[in-house]
Predict the structure.
Amino acid sequence: MSDNTTNDDQLMQLASQLKAAEENLQQLHKQLSTIGITPDDLPKPPKSTAPPVATLTDDVGSIGKVIEGIFDGQNMMGPNNKTYPVPANYASKSKLVEGDILKLTISDDGSFIYKQIGPIERKKLIGRITMQDGTYMVEAGGKLYHVLFASVTYFKAQPGDEVTIVTPADRDASWAAIEAVIG
């Protein structure tokens, strides 16, 4: 493959991502205007809490393709909302929470290698493991959180056990990571 073809492919992908971002921005402006708010009326978040953005890059010097995305509790959401499966054992042991930024390297042989590159601020809660419709959940702070089956089995937890969970500190989440079993 020539360098021009590679550059053309990259430019097409970037153009597609830019168009999707512009369309999303137009949709947000339209939603704001229906409730009588302009973008200038919105509070300005501190730079450290700006929402992460999924990106696709060619990391020169590494083998394969590098994609950055956001962990959604089970998977990594990459550019254009493409979903990449995160191994449950990695997510459990790393105690990933919704909003963490991950880097995925897809090697030339097709191997997926994940690395957490942007952990978000976390808070800890104490809750109890329950099972609903065959799915493990933790009830903490008056809310139910999904937890990965791999986390439950890793900690040998059972419904009724008290656990410490980790969730994003600055946003509502539907998933949590189990940090420890209390009893």
About this structure: The domain at 122-181 is CATH 2.40.50.140 (OB fold (Dihydrolipoamide Acetyltransferase, E2P)). The mean pLDDT is 83.
